[in-house]
Amino acid sequence: MSINWEGVMPAVTTKFNENDELDLKAFKINIQAQLDAGVHGIVLGGTLGEASTLSDDEKRTLTRETVAFVNDKVPVIINIAEQTTKAAIEAAKRAEEDGAKGLMMLPPMRYKSGDKETVEYFKAVANSTKLPIMVYNNPVDYKVEVTLDMFEDLLKNCPNIQAVKESTRDISNITRIINRFGNRLKIMTGVDTLALESLLMGANGWIAGLVCAFPKETVAIYELQKVGRIKEALEIYRWFLPLLELDINPKLVQNIKLAEVATGIGTENVRAPRLPLSGEERKHVLDVIAQGIKTRPSLPDYKNL
User: Fold this and answer.
1) Which residues does UniProt call coiled coil (predicted)?
2) Angle of helix 279-294 relative to helix 230-244, nearest 10 degrees?
């Protein structure tokens, strides 16, 4: 199997109802908005998708329902964030059975694995599945870095490791990856506040967060920069930045779900131990969202550039 690792792929939120059950109706409203905006893939069960709170059955339901709903318009990718190699291999197997087209993979959770342990973990899962894999490299939040030397080993031994979600926060790392691996390792930027900069430095696409609430604006930035209309992309990006900063925050899930409510394509419900925002924190986020909506830019016909 192969995925065209480029374009905008939303790391979608998981919707819950008042009884803390999956809200598939609200979920599909958001997925449809993403498809209408022209996204290039859907990523399920990431940090923003509250993966650590989902049961295996809920992940399977989300995968199957999304695959059926999307109906091959774009690839559906599910995140693997497990504590053991055995569990990660089982998760990859379930993903393949449920129709996912690819995997996003974090290093082992909770245990801070060493370099060799991390490489062997990725190898074991990659060699257990036919699905293409994007390694999620986020040492800032998850404290394990996949270095270029580690990628060298992985790419040599695992042809289905095809991409990296680059979240080191170091823009120059994009150039290092390209210099080292050329087109062998596709780069998907994973930090909303560095997205346009990353794309201009050669990233192939954007695993996005605020796209969950503002899909058209996100895709417009990608498409405009792709055809060299940088000034127009930059104008939208500068408008977007205060909103994008809601993603680089420990409460990104609550922040972005509030934004989804404001744009009419989501609900605020989160799963405990998360709680809805309150007090001054809530007021600040709502003010940022309100200002963004008030000044929302007119977009060019970005789908036909």
Assistant:
1) none
2) 160
| Class of residue 41 by CB neighbours under 10 A (exposed 0-12, middle 13-18, buried 19+) | buried
CA dist 270 and 156 (Å) reads: 41
Query: Would you tell me how many other CB atoms lie within 10 Å of the CB of residue 246?
Result: 24
Q: Are 106 and 118 in contact (CB under 8 A)?
A: no
Is residue 1 over pLDDT 80? no
Q: What Rg value do the Cα atoms of the chain yield, rounded?
A: 18
Domains located in the chain, CATH noted: 7-304 (3.20.20.70)
Residues 218 and 211: their CA atoms lie apart, in Å, by: 6
pLDDT digits (tens, 9 = 90+) for 13-29: 999 999 999 999 999 99
**For the segment 191-239, what is each residue's pLDDT rounded down to a tens digit?**
999 999 999 999 999 999 999 999 999 999 999 999 999 999 999 999 9
Q: Is residue 260 within 8 Å of residue 13, measured between CB atoms? A: yes
163: which strand partners? 134, 186
For residue 165, list its beta bridge partners. 136, 188
**Per-residue pLDDT tens digits for 50-61:** 999 999 999 999
Record the pTM.
Answer: 0.97
